[in-house]
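Example 3.2
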Amino acid sequence: MSRAQEPHRPFPSFGNPFRMISRKGSNLSPKLHALLNTFEETLAGRIKKLKPAGKEDVLRLSWMRSAMESLCGIHSDIKTLITALELPVCDWDDKWIDVYLDNSVKLLDICIAFSSEISRMKQGHLFLQCVLHNLSGDSSKQLVRARSSLDGWKQHIASKNPRLDNCFAAMDGLAQTLDLPKIKNSAKGKVLMRAMYGVKAVTLLVCSIFAAGFSGSAKKMMDRHVPETCLWAEAFVDLQTFVNTEIRSLYSSGRVTVLKELEAVDTGVKKLYPIVQDGVDPVEAEELKNSTTDLEKSAENFSGGLDQLAKEVDNFFQIVLSGRDALLCNLRVGGNVSDQVRPSNNVEGPMVR
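Structure, written as tokens:
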């Protein structure tokens, strides 16, 4: 996307971002080398912390919240780097600005799609609340209502969210511009573009994982090859291989969902459904009570996990939006791009309420 009130310009051809900074013959000063190394080492540390402790933690809502929290940190790190580089907006090449603005729109679209899916699952939780409410009584009518709500839950969760298609399209667009513009005469620009490459690579990985979990398919998962010269490359490949392999394994085994808390709810629903289907005799009363308690616990964990994840997705949306606003503001006034614009309280993000 081009700057405001300017006609859209096609992206320039992109080159290999790893020719920008070579170990031999580099024209970077010791200060710039130190800034870049610090950024990449910090990025490597954030990626290492993201690797789940075990396979059972892959696509657990608490892990997804941590992943989104890490993205917030990574995108804040790039703002800190820009400030440290003291790179005024007048020194930014038009093609850098176009790529940044276009990518920020795609990231906002992805956040909106994720928030939409979280909201859809939260709406499904209402069916569970109805089930639990009706099972608190013992009349046959309440059992019929509970069964109807269980049917509603299953139909709702099985439905597809069309907004996820926008998410996949946005990720494809980001992947196509992963390689960054060639930098000829700006040492600071080389550092900035190299750092932005790392940010985009990790962002794409996390978004790809989220999309696979939300969509019920691993077909759109991305396996990205990154050069070993990046200080974060080893941690990136380790995380990507571990998580992607596990998600593909889960889907290949016939799983309908790979979100752990959702899977727990689904298990509880399947256990409860045959009990309420034909009425409950005295022999099954205790089993009904235990199954209801189990479903109540899993539904509570599911709802709480969604709330926390929604908050982090909204935080990420605000960080991306504030960075975009800062750049646009400084383009208008000709200031320094490192002057950050804090989002005002009335800026509406994709928060799920």
